[in-house]
Amino acid sequence: MALDTTSTSPAANAVADPRSGPRLSQQARKDSVARIVVLVSLVLGAIFAAFPIIWMLSSSFKSNTEIFEYPPRLITENFSFGAYSTIISDPVKVRFFINSYVVSLSVTVLTLVTAIFAAYAFSRFEFRLKPALNVIIVSVQAVPPITLLIPYFGLMVALKLYNTYPGLILTYMVFTLPYAIVMMTGYFNTLPRELDEAVKVDGGRTITALWRVLVPISIPGIVSVGIYTFMIAWNEYLFALTLTKTQDMRTVPIGIQLLMGQHSYEWNEMMAMSILGCIPILFLFLFFQRYFIGGMSAGAVK
Q: What CATH code is carried by the domain that includes residue 224?
């Protein structure tokens, strides 16, 4: 049997072609330059995004006078927790945080429970009003919230929900629920229907299939929707300002704004309260980051 002596290996071709060496070296240099450019761009972007937070943290340990000294200094010599102790020792400011936690957690829990039921219905059942309800849900997201401010104010006053927790919670849910339903419906659509059918074959009911099978394996989607909902409720300013009037109902964003007095601003306390207000969101992202990224990508598939 004759052997084919005409075929050569890539290494042999590289040796035979004297131009292949410079070509490979030029391509390697291009790849290295591209990686350096990408790395430098990412570092500059990270610095640009992180610097305001670093400056805010630094300012929270300074006095008001030192914040405006020139030239500015990132690290202060008179390091002090005075702004934090003032906030923590003030019952009115502590109440701002309690209100934000009560409202945000309530909105998150109620939104998740309602969205899970609604998304399961949209994903697994066919009914007459399904297309119309889908259009309504998407349309609500397209409406600028500020256009609903005055109507909501009148509605809350008429329903005697002005300056109450239920008034804020119901208002926030109007804006968080449509997004949650869309995301959870997309996530449920990625799960095979055979899971539901297997539960029914074993004698289980629809509610059993939802809570015993689908919900446990949908934790990434639920966590991502929950973080988004909590973040929206925690940072909301306009409706919290309009639908509350007493300090015992104000939330953290309004509390920060109240530190802007008529004749002076408490800048160090504003920075300290802003840092304390960032902590819940930061912890949520740090502890549930992998669920958040996976849930967002899975929920956007369909």
A: 1.10.3720.10
